[in-house]
Specification:
two-stranded antiparallel sheet; alpha/beta
Length: 303
């Protein structure tokens, strides 16, 4: 048994983290056979603690929901809400109304699957809408969703920066902090891959706001280029993340968000190795200033 295999074996038997590591199952349509095939693959990875179901199809039949529930037996379940062509912060009342309806149906699905958490992206605002107005719309939407009375917790997610005639919001961690200030009860899904894309300091944010972070989306990325890369192929330091989560006593979720079975297999193996190494360190600390970029100043710049 090589050094890496030995460290993972020790980690699995003696030093299980307080948080859950898992991966995504995409439910984008009614392809039950496809769900089954993809979940069978995830089971081969070993050590999956939860499944994050990304659903773009909220019109599942009762039979399909029963099939999905059966497939997920034995796993903790969390959800990623639909977001393609949706926005909580549209300029149009009818679009926001349709979004609210879809998200209420998502909450119902979450309860049917006994999901613990749902992650929501904010969406896109028009370039002429200021951030303050967008934040108020998000606060109103999250308030309405809480009134549904779902058992699942809800969280807002950061996204990659994109601007033009529409602007993705929240994208940066400065955006996220402003939402957190407006909504003191708000939980966060921290996408560390998107932080790398946005050149945001995820380490400081995680240290500062660890009690409000319910979920972490893990994938590699290149700054200002692309994300959802296999771990080790960009500048996201998975080993630093594993050490920091151990040091902080993080108790939420970490969901691997890579694309394709080959990249997922490679990334899952690397992540398990990173966890194993972190579990064997006598101290697990990381200096947040290590990610300070030239020219950074103040809290907004660091994220």
């Amino acid at each position: 048994m090589d050094r890496e295999a030995r460290s993972v074996a020790v980690f699995e038997s003696e030093n299980v983290p307080a948080y859950s590591s898992g991966a995504f199952l995409n439910v984008l349509d009614h392809d039950v056979a496809g769900w089954q095939k993809n979940l069978e693959f995830l089971r081969t990875l070993g050590g999956i603690g939860h499944i994050e179901v990304w659903t773009e199809e909220v019109g599942l039949t009762p039979g399909e929901i029963a099939e999905l529930r059966a497939l997920l037996q034995g796993f903790k379940v969390i959800l990623h809400a639909p977001y393609l062509q949706l926005s909580m912060i549209s300029h149009h009342d009818m679009v926001r109304g349709a979004c609210a309806d879809i998200y209420r149906r998502t909450l119902t699905l979450a309860d049917e699957l006994s999901a613990d958490l749902i992650t929501f992206p904010g969406g896109a605002r028009p370039f002429f809408m200021d951030d303050g107005h967008a934040i108020e719309q998000l606060a109103a939407m999250f308030g309405a969703l809480r009134e549904v009375g779902s058992r699942a917790k809800i969280a807002l997610k950061n996204m990659p920066i994109a601007s033009g005639t529409t602007v993705i919001f929240p994208a940066t961690l400065a955006d996220m902090r402003r939402n957190m200030e407006r909504m003191p009860e708000l939980m966060v899904t921290l996408d560390v891959g998107y932080c790398v894309q946005n050149k945001d300091n995820w380490i400081k944010f995680l240290r500062t706001h660890r009690h409000r972070i319910a979920n972490i989306h893990l994938h590699d990325a290149q700054a200002e280029v692309e994300g959802h890369l296999r771990l080790g192929s960009g500048t996201m330091d998975a080993f630093a993340l594993a050490r920091l989560l151990r040091a902080l006593g993080y108790t939420g979720y970490v969901s691997l968000g890579t694309v394709g079975q080959k990249d997922t297999t490679h990334s899952w193996k690397l992540w398990r190795h990173a966890q194993a190494e972190a579990s064997q360190e006598t101290t697990a600390t990381l200096n947040a200033s290590a990610l300070r970029k030239p020219g950074d100043s103040g809290d907004d710049a660091e994220g």
